[in-house]
Each structure stands twice: as structure tokens, then as C-alpha cells.
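Reply to dn_fold:

You asked what the input looked like. This is it:
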Amino acid sequence: MKRRFLVGAIAAIAVLVAAMVAYGSSGKSGVSPLPTSSCPGKLVQGGGSAQFIIASDLPLQGSSRTQTIEMTEAIQYQLRQLKYKAGKYIVGYQSCDDSTAQAGKWDSGKCSANVQNYVRNKDVIGVIGTFNSGCAEIEVPIANRASLGYVSPANTYVGLTHSAPGVTSAGEPGKYYPTGKRNYIRVVAADDFQGAADAILAKGQGVTKVYILNDKEAYGAGIAGTFRNAAKRLNLQVVGDEAWDPKAASYEALAGKIKNAGAQAVFLGGLECENGGKLIKDLRAGIGDAKIIAPDGFSSFSDTISHAGSASDGMYISIAGQPNTKVKSGAGKAFIKGFGKVIGRDPNPYSLYGAQAASVMMLAIAKSNGTRASVTSNLFKTRVIGGILGSFVINKNGDTNLAPISVYLVKGGKATFFRVITPPASLVAAA
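and this is what came back:
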């Protein structure tokens, strides 16, 4: 009797262990959630038990959080539209944070910890990220060794996918792919397009002398370089080119230096979270009517305007893609209307990129055999017809062929659409 009970108990335990393996540590799905230390977002999966996890890797603390938190909502919205199904697979989603409250932006330690968690958790089939190019430089090589694919909705640093004279560093982009096989694509145009577009903007505003600043980060230094190259090709005189100190208490001396150089415009190659609000305030006070032009590192409009105040009036901010009012695809219009209704406002342009990145990842999973390597391989076969961003393909480097750059002008505390610039291929090559 005791032996029969013992055998029965062992059998029951075996069933329980099998169930735990099948349904994961939460007991509610077939996958194990990522740790809350890196991924505070709850694992969501619709009505079924997920077979895989897609993680998003964005900075959810600091001055860009308004934009990035909305992007996570956009990703989840799009996955709901797809019913969390990628072909025959059911996919769960978890939002991960690569920033810290202390840094107020992305943090190299968090980026490193996050990617290690993704690699270790075999349920993670792909990552939507990163937001900051510097974080991608850390995560992509580690993920590459595990054949884990990334789709970035926001990285624009050129060197992540291809080289450019005077812009990228030695060994780029090869050093990010130690296995020799690529695992990273992006649905946003690289900085060689945006830098060229901003130089065209400056020339179109009658500028002949420009001063270039950068924040020392990969993205900032890179886009400053592409702007510099294109500006010279357009016969604009670069009268100054240096980095700003994100920890400076004042930029009055820098503003005076720029004014004395005779600059008619200042290009801010960098991120708003690098003390951008204070920089704009001091520049406007010191350079008078000279134009301030900034790339998409300042595209969290509400943060840029609130931090810089009235000093932001008159500045130009560029961002990849079309403004919501110019989106032509049916899928894009439907997303703007549907997601806008959910959040109660017009979506930030980068939310469209987040949603498109989610769709691209789901398509690659649907076409895969359920392995990371197969998903990654299919990312490079991406061909989207009538997607949220329109129709596009991804080339062998991992770049999109969508290239329009939208420019916004800040007026009366609001960023209003100004114009779309699609730089010619010859200028992009030069940049």
C-alpha cells in the first residue's frame, strides 16, 4: 500500500514537473518571462499560451520616456491586431528598459545585462530595439553569437550597418557581427540620409555659414559627421565643429564663440537628454536670430519644448519618414486612427516605426522554422507591400530603402510640419 502510494506520488510529481516545463515558471504560459529587473513590462500574449517571446529594448526612464513608452504601447497595439499570431506560432511580448533613473537615459550596464538575459532565455526569439545607437553597439555583437535577431525602429548611426568616410570608425560595421553573419536590421533610414536632408534645409534657409555641435555619443558624432560632409558638398562653410559637454552648468561661452564665428545656423548632432534643453536656452540667448537645426535626437517634441521653453521657438527638428498627415498607405492611416483613439492623441511619428518593426519581426517568425537563426535569416528577406510605413525592402546590410525625411518647425510651443526632404543619392553618398 505504501509502495503503491509512493509510486502514485512519484507519478504525480512527474506530471507536475512536466506541466511546469510546458507552462513555464508563471504557470500561465509556455514561456518563462524575462526578469523584472530588466523587463518591468508584464508578459502579454493575447488569449493563448505563447511559444516564443519578443522583447522590446527601449529607454523608459529619462527625458525620452514620453516617446518610448508610447512606442511600447504601439508595439503592443500592433501585436493585438495580429492576435499575437505569427503564422503557426503564438508569440508573447515583454517590454524591457535599457535606462536607469540615475542616468536619465540609456545605460551601458543595463544594455549589457538586458542582452545577456535575452540570450540566456531560449524563449526569446527576437528583439525590437534598440532606441539608442550606442546601446545597439553593445547588444548586437552579443546577440550575434546567439543568432538572435534585432529589428530597430530608431537606430540611425551609419556604422551599425555600413561604413562612410569621416563618419564611421575603423572596423565598422564588421565588428558588430563576430560570427560573420548579420543579425540586425532597421526600418528607419540611417543618418547619411538625415544629415544630408538637414544640410539641404540649412542651404534652403539662406545659410552660408554653419557651426556643428555633437554630444560625443555614437549617434550624435555620426549624424554630425554626415551633416558636415553634406554641408561641404553644398558649399556651406563650416565655421566651427566641436562637442558640447552634457554636464555643463552653462553654455554661454559656447554661444558667444558661435556668434563670434559668424554662424548663421547651429546644428545639434545629439540627443535632447544630453542637457539639450539648457543648451538650446543658452544658444538662443547668445546667438540671437541664428537658426537652430536638430535631428531626431530631439524628436520627442514635448520633452524638447518643455525643457527648452520659449527658446525652442524657431528651431527646426528633422525626423525620418513622413508626418502622420502625409501617410498614404491604408495600413498607416488605419494605425494612426486606431492607435490614436487608444492613446487619445495623434501618435508620435516613431510609434509608427515601433509598430512596423513589430510587424516585420512577426513576419520573419511566421516564415521561420521556429529557430532564432531562421528568424534572423528571414529578417533579411523582408519585403513589405503597403505596410504602416508604406512599401519597402531591407538590403543585405540591414538598411531600408525608405528615405524621406520630415522637418518640423517649432512655433508657439508646438512642433508643426514644415516640409519633406528626400536627399539625392549623390549627396547621401557624399554624406
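The first strand starts at residue 52 and ends at 58.
Hope that clears it up.
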